[in-house]
Each structure stands twice: as C-alpha cells, then as structure tokens.
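thread: overnight batch results

M.L. [08:02]
morning all. the overnight job finished for the chain we discussed friday. pasting input first so we're all looking at the same thing
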Amino acid sequence: MARPKEHKPETILKAAVTVFRSEGISVSTARIAEAAGVSNGTLFNYFPTKQALVDAVYLTIKSEMAGAIGEFSPEDSLQNRMFHVWDRLLRWVRSHSDEHLVANLLGQSGLVGPQTQIEGNELFGAPLALLEEAKSAGILVDLPLEYLGALIQHQLSQATASGLNDDEAEVAFAVLWNGITRTGQIAGTQSDRTKRTKKSTNRK
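M.L. [08:03]
and the structure it wrote out:
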C-alpha cells in the first residue's frame, strides 16, 4: 500500500513565491494551496493564517539572501568588505530574481508583521555593522544609516534589473561608493581595485 504523500511547508512556501510573483500578493491562501498541490486545510496546518504565511515567506527569503553573503576578512578595507557584500548579494539576486522581487513586494506592502521585519533586519547584522563602522570612521556622508541602507538596496535592484555583467557591476559599486562616502576616494586605492580584480578573475 502506497504511503500518503507528505506535504512539507517548503513546498507551500515555494508555491507562495511563485503565485505572489505571477498573480500578486493579494491572492487567497486557497490559490496558494492549489499551486502547492495541497488542500487549504493542509496549508493552515503549517501556517494558521495568511499573515503567518506571508511572514514565513518573507523571513525565508531574507534568511537565504543574508546567508549568501558569507564571511569576509576583517583585515580588508571597508571598501573591499562592502564590495564583498555587494558582489555576493548581486550574485544571489541574479539567480533568485523571483524571490527578491517577492521580498521587495511584501516589504513595501506593509503586510509583513513588525516582529518579522525586525527579525529580517537582524539577519543582515554584518553588513549593517560595516555601515556603522564606516559612519563612526567619518567615511560616510552625513545621512541616516537607514537611508543609506535603502539606497544600497535600490542600487542592487537596479543593477539586477539592468542585467549588468561582473565588470559593469564593479563600476556600479564604485559609483555607489563614491556617492555615499565623503570624498569617494578615502578607501579607493589602486591596491583595493587590484585585489577585487584578482578575486573577479579567480571566479571565472
């Protein structure tokens, strides 16, 4: 006798991303359950409310995105460490465009719960710490960190939407860095650029 099919929450989360992407975030849980191949009751076994499902989708995507950053050497310059974050995030977004779009849609919609937003932000503690370090060092322009963080996210989305290749993405980062630092030159030494070029070459 065949064992009953097991429905894992990951299946429902993936279906939610697909449906949110194609049909909008206002779709019903019944539509998501249908896309996942489960009953609405099964969906509610894992996610008691649509709010719970929305929060789980958002936090799952943010967790995967933050995990893509990996580790960077504390001995590198601030500019190189920021480039590491930019490069890793851009590569993740390129290969997970649907997830990135859905996370942005949910984040901008106001549907994500306050506690989930806090938890999502905490996942990016390392990049935020870099911005705080740069701010304390007097490198950044005199603007709120929240604004600068949002600006970086916007530029990341724009770089992805424009289909920039690796070389163009490095130029885009240089433009971004010059825009958020006081001089645009503080950490922009030739040796920094050489290091990044070598890393880029090694990836090919």
